[in-house]
Design goal:
Length: about 260
């Protein structure tokens, strides 16, 4: 069983439906199977059964159904299962059709061209930030790649920038807690509050060695009716980012305002 880059945030609390009366358990079980592959590249029937707490026969039926629809595929040699091509197709459609990303893209390209740094566009999702778009740094060295498409809000400048102006995102992170990631990660509610109050005061957030060792980021929230709905950030080695913060913040602030204007916010 191999492990792929962690595009998924493994510390995120499992989603619970608001009203179980309207939930089909069979559909929920199938989706639970798909989420098992968020961290692991390939899994066997026994792996799925153990993670879901079901019989192997049940896990096999779930996998067979998903294989028949192209959401999962089975390696003919190893017998292990992995995510299927049809799931990739639907994911690409969801990505391409996201209106917020579409509106932001021209602005993000300008930030990327102006800085040469990895440029991220993040949105809140519960206690986390999901990066809808990532334009890699210009030197061709992919620092992040698919790594970190979803990260806990307390480990990123984007998460802090959003939470400072989005009470729902702020509360969701408090409820989920503050699991440490690297040496600089926010670890307590007191530290979280201190960071958020500073962001409210200055209008931007910085994360230094908080999600990845030796790396930092700067983010500015994108506001709609005074609520943060997204963030624009740049990411790179700490030694590159820290000396440039005073130059980067005005550029990111202007980009944020452009996106808000394009949204009619």
């Amino acid at each position: 069983m191999s492990t792929v880059e962690h595009a998924w945030c493994t510390t995120t609390p499992k989603r619970h439906p608001a009203d179980d009366a309207y939930i089909l358990k069979s559909v929920g079980s199938a989706l639970d199977v798909l989420e098992c592959f968020a961290v692991d590249n390939e899994l066997g029937v026994s792996d799925i059964a153990r993670r879901l707490g079901v019989a192997k026969s049940t896990a096999h039926r779930l996998l067979s159904t998903l294989v028949s629809r192209g959401f999962v595929e089975q390696d003919p040699h190893s017998g292990l299962y992995r995510l299927g091509l049809h799931l990739f197709e639907l994911g690409q459609l969801a990505h391409a059709r996201n209106e917020l990303r579409h509106v932001a893209m021209p602005v993000l390209r300008h930030v990327h061209a102006s800085t040469g740094l990895t440029t991220n566009f993040g949105v809140p999702d519960g206690p986390d930030v999901v990066f809808l778009e990532r334009l890699e740094n210009r030197d061709g060295v992919r620092i992040l790649g698919h790594f970190g498409r979803r990260l806990p809000a307390h480990t990123t400048s984007s998460g802090k920038a959003i939470a400072a102006f989005n009470p729902t995102a702020y509360a969701a992170r408090v409820a989920a807690g503050f699991p440490p990631r690297v040496t600089g990660t926010v670890r307590t509610a007191v530290d979280w509050e201190r960071h958020i109050e500073h962001v409210k005061k200055v209008g931007y957030a910085v994360a230094t060695n908080e999600s990845f060792e030796g790396s930092s980021s700067v983010a500015v929230p994108v506001l709609s009716r005074r609520i943060a709905i997204a963030s624009v950030s740049v990411f790179g080695p700490t030694g590159v980012i820290e000396p440039e913060i005073d130059r980067l913040v005005p550029l990111l602030t202007a980009a944020s305002r452009q996106i808000s204007k394009r949204l009619g916010a």
